[in-house]
Amino acid sequence: MAEKVAVLESYLSCHVCSETFRDPVSLSCNHSFCSSCLQKFWEQAKNKNCPICKRKSSKDDPAINFTLKELADSFAGRQKTGSSGTEKVKKKVEVVCSKHPEVPYWFCEDEQRSLCPVCEFSLHQNHKVVPIEQAVSDLKDQLKCDLKSLQDKRDKCKQVEKTYSEMREHTKKQLLSTERQIRAEFYKLQQFLKEEEESRLAALREEEEHKGKTISREMKRIQEQISSLSDSICAVEEELQKHKVAFLSTYKDTQTRARAQSSLSDPQLLSGALIDVAKHLGNLSFRVWEKMKEKVHFSPVILDPNTADPRLYLSDDLTSVRRGDTKQQLPDNPERFTEYNNVLGSEGFSSGKHSWEVEVGDHPYWIVGLAKESVDRKGEKCVSPKYGIWSLVYRSGKYTNGVGQTVSVKKSLQKTRVQLDYNRGEVSFYNPEDMTHIYTHRDTFTEKLFPYFNVCPARDAKTTDIKICPSAISLR
């Protein structure tokens, strides 16, 4: 009896002042203290942590736990009366039947309550009744399991919270990196346009200068002709002013020169003396765009960095991937592969025909193909249609399909073409150099498929990257 009272007293005692609770408050960690003791402790510690487990309190002013207060006040009031009071507490807490207080009680599992075996046993003959000690032990074991489940759930929540925190930090890095790359791409386009503008203005000025020189040369020739004609006109006018004898002796020469100049063809304006404005302005933006296409490249597949295993490094333009020696600090978001060196394309297909080429070079170990959207990205799996991956595998000089069968390839591949006909359920692989067919896998597709790549270390190989080839093949 004294032992049970001691346990109850320990349960109702404040861990700060060691006295029975006065206005007790309970923190979220389930530890309880006198309200005034807790506030005093916080003032001294200059924080809001639990005095026992040091966990930070979520509330600055916890509410009074009235259930615990009533129990503490009742216990403290009876304790003042001495040992007889202690007996009354025991009776209030533990007595089930006032007629038989000393009889060991039993527990009815059907009704979930304690019972007196003398007075009530006959009422529970068809119920499952066990000794109260056994019931307490079993229920405590159940509660411990519930506690373990709650603790596991809390740990999982903390892990998700940690991952979200990592994702938030990563998005900030993505913002800065993506902004930098966007600015760099637009700067290159702006530089191209600026250079193209200067080039076309220079061509315009060059034509103006050439046409100006041509007009000046023709004007000079015409001016010389005008001067010569003016001299002849003056000579004829002077000849007409002479007397008969003098006129007859000299008119012949003047007439001959005048007729010679008159017989010359009239001067003609040259064609094309003006600037060819149509040449400079006609379809200007289209011709600049046509030229710009030589500076930019289209990739039929773009890799999705949010799916890449932390050991994979993607190029800035997201068209090539290599396996690095170090693991990057990346958040474990749901889309990311974490067990194998995998990465997916950014766009999936749920209908139509699609194809792209992958440059593999002399890389010693690679896998390319397609994976379904729901493919397991966290656990261990085989690269096969059974697990939602249709692929061509190259390893140790041998090519295999997704079910481990060797496929015949006449010439070692430097590139491979992946071709999908979703509606017909076909994934095919070709050598793009001569369009030699390697093999085709036929299946029934029920969800979106994404381009799939797996890259392993290539320390002894010249080729370290697996690259999407720029192609005129559009996504259809």
TrEMBL record:
InterPro entries: B30.2/SPRY (IPR001870), B30.2/SPRY_sf (IPR043136), Butyrophylin_SPRY (IPR003879), ConA-like_dom_sf (IPR013320), PRY (IPR006574), SPRY_dom (IPR003877), TRIM/RBCC (IPR050143), Znf-RING_euk (IPR027370). Residues 140-170 form a coiled coil. One of its GO terms (molecular function) is zinc ion binding. Residues 92-132 form the B box-type domain. Residues 14-54 form the RING-type domain. Transmembrane segments: none annotated. Residues 281-471 form the B30.2/SPRY domain. Keywords: Coiled coil, Metal-binding, Zinc, Zinc-finger. SUPFAM superfamilies: B-box zinc-binding domain (SSF57845), Concanavalin A-like lectins/glucanases (SSF49899), RING/U-box (SSF57850). This is Tripartite motif containing 35-13. The lineage of its organism: Eukaryota, Metazoa, Chordata, Craniata, Vertebrata.
